[in-house]
Amino acid sequence: MSKAAKSAETIEFPTFDPSQATDQFRSLAEKGLEQSKEAYAKFKAGAEEAQKTLETSFETIKKAGDEVSLKTIAAMRANAEAGFSHLEALVGAKSLSEVIELQTSFVRKNVDMAVDQAKEIQAVSSKAVEDVSKPVKTAFDKAMQDLKVA
């Protein structure tokens, strides 16, 4: 025999045992199924958490919008009342110098009132932004922490 024939005769191939292959396939399938269940559970929990966060954010946005709207309406009402009071005072003025004095005083008071109203609306708006961003930031931080753990 030639060298090639001798080496071909000495090579041994492992025997194929169908019972072991079935057990290995079943084990692999069960492991894959378990990993899929775990991944689904994590995804579901994350989706539920995101939904709760969004619901909380939308409720907060609505409340904040209501507060800003109420402050704006109160400011408009105060401005309208000040304007009508000023007109009544102007109608009762007896001289041009009194009209100028009333107008100057009205403008000063109006500017002060506008600054105060702007500060109030800014404070409510800042609080609203903070309240709205808080649940989102908390959820994001939790998600990042969960990713670090995994």
UniProtKB/TrEMBL annotation:
Domain Phasin: 42-138
Pfam name, any one: Phasin_2
Domain of life of the native organism: Bacteria
Name of the protein this chain belongs to: Phasin
